[in-house]
Design brief:
Chain A is of the alpha/beta class. Chain A has one domain: Hypothetical Protein Ychn, Chain: A. Chain A has five helices and five strands; from the N terminus they run E-H-E-H-E-H-H-E-H-E. Chain A has helices at 16-29, 60-71, 79-85, 90-95, 113-121; strands at 2-7, 33-39, 75-78, 107-110, 124-128. Chain A has a five-stranded parallel sheet with strand order 4-3-2-1-5, sandwiched between helices. By secondary structure, chain B is an alpha/beta fold. In chain B, 20% of the residues lie in helices and 24% in strands. Chain B has helices at 19-30, 82-87, 118-126; strands spanning 5-10, 36-41, 78-81, 99-102, 108-111, 113-116, 130-133. Chain B has a five-stranded parallel sheet with strand order 6-3-2-1-7. The longest helix of chain B is centred in the first third of the chain and has 12 residues, at 19-30. The chains are: A alpha/beta, B alpha/beta. Chains A and B meet through helix 3 and helix 5 of A and helix 1 and strand 7 of B.
């Protein structure tokens, strides 16, 4: 089955990123296709490369990044939500005249249309949120 | 592109968290994709479409007028749960007059608000192909 996954909460603050990560791993193991993972609301914070949790804790952003690269996942951060919360890739930071970017490898920033398209193209759309 | 039944479920008050505002942003984008879109308002989500919202005291943008534009985007099915209204002491009179124009009926202005019971809401949700919850 082909899935689009939406994640609406930030890492650590809320369980939804962990649960979604476990769901995506399990779905891939079972041979399902992940069409897209879309990060919205505070969920965009799953795409920062500047998180430094305590050494004995998981590093969720890195886990997403590595899973995405390994399986060629389309990890999309909503641009409108990202701009509100200070998530930038290099070209967006340049466009906004900002002095830094912070997106982790394996993610890309794009528009809300990507979420709707995911819903249209996938057999199931699953929301992980509060 | 094929057309699917999309439902956006609004469960939270319009202010206090950003969910309602960012949900509306998704709804407006969805209009560009020519899908069969409906909205559900349940729990505190019913406050999103109440009359007379005034945000001057909290320093935030009052975005309630944007719901009035939904009809112009061909989004004309706003399911509002009766129990959620009643639990909060609200009636349809407390809701904004949200309308759409029916081109098959000489552009007659019709209400977009469809009051449904909790049970009817469950049936409408069961018909959907994509349900996004905010």
């Amino acid at each position: 089955m082909k899935y689009t996954v939406m994640i609406n909460e930030g890492p650590y603050q809320h369980q939804s990123s962990d649960t979604a990560l476990q769901f995506v791993r399990a779905a891939l193991e079972k041979g399902h296709e992940i069409f897209r993972v879309f990060f919205y609301h505070d969920g965009v914070n799953n795409g920062t490369r500047l998180s430094v949790p305590p050494a004995d804790d998981r590093l969720l952003q890195k886990e997403w990044s590595e899973l995405g690269i390994k399986h060629g996942l389309d990890l999309v951060i909503c641009i409108a939500a990202a701009q509100r919360r200070g998530l930038m890739d290099e070209s967006e930071a340049k466009r906004q005249g900002l002095d830094a970017d912070n997106i982790i490898e394996g993610f890309r920033i794009s528009g809300l249309g990507q979420l709707i398209e995911g819903g249209i193209q996938s057999d199931r759309t699953i929301v992980f949120g509060d | 592109m094929s057309s699917k039944k999309f439902m956006f479920v609004n469960r939270k008050a319009p202010y206090g968290t950003v969910y309602a505002l960012e949900s509306l942003e998704v709804v407006l984008i969805s209009a560009a994709f020519d899908q069969d879109v409906s909205l559900a308002f349940i729990d505190d989500g019913v406050y999103q479409i109440t009359n007379g919202q005034d945000t001057t005291g909290i320093g935030q943008k009052n975005f309630s007028k944007a719901y009035k534009a939904l009809g112009d985007y061909d989004i004309s099915k706003l399911y509002v749960e009766k129990e959620s209204l009643a639990e909060r002491g609200l009636t349809q009179d407390d809701l904004m007059d949200l309308v759409w124009e029916d081109e098959d009926d000489d552009w007659a202005e019709k209400s977009s608000i469809i009051l449904v019971s909790r049970e009817e809401m469950a049936a409408v949700m069961a018909e959907q192909e994509v349900t996004l919850s905010f």
